[in-house]
Request: fold
Amino acid sequence: MIRFENVTKTFSTGATALADVTFEIGDGELVVISGPSGAGKTTILRLLLRDVLPSAGTIFLDDTVVEKVQKKGLASLRRKIGAVFQDFKILEDRTVEENIGLVLEILGEKDEDISKRIHEVLGQVELSGKERVFPRQLSGGELQRVAIARALSFKPKVLFADEPTGNLDSETSRTIARLLNDINQEGTTVVVATHDETLINELGGRLLALDHGVLTAHHKKT
Reply:
């Protein structure tokens, strides 16, 4: 499903975020990408979304060569990837259902289908009944679950969570880990980029370790 072949990314500042990185993530896998801040974890997501282009190497998402996707094909590419971020990226002046529904509206879904899907994903993240609540009324863990629900709303093939517990305590990190494990068990490919040891220990799947852009470990978690 996802394949990086000898990928290097050097920015205009001269900083190398990834150095000759090769790995593969299969359909339905759960993979943890670990490493300290600046290791290159976020760059992997940006490359997958074609937000930036590799300096060298090739990136595949299914049979698509990501760097060759033209502007008109970006929406289709990005619809395959649901992204979750450390800072939630939730709109404070909109309710939970409005935050989730906005994505589906942009995709042109019908109103009745949007309502049905919002109900489904909120149930999936254990937030049923919170549809009309505003973000300021929610805890950090609940906000991240809303962000996960929003990312799942358009049924992506891949859920990519970038430091999803960076602003959360250890107990809440365990809750998010359980949720991500469950989402993976339901068939979604899950990729988690994190340096949170609690999250790493609680997640199943396989581990990729990055250090200053270099892939230093690649093995199944025990």
Observations:
- The chain has a mean pLDDT of 95.
- Residues 95 and 133 are 5 Å apart (CA to CA).
- Strands lie at 2-10, 16-25, 30-34, 56-61, 64-65, 81-85, 158-162, 189-194, 206-211, 214-220.
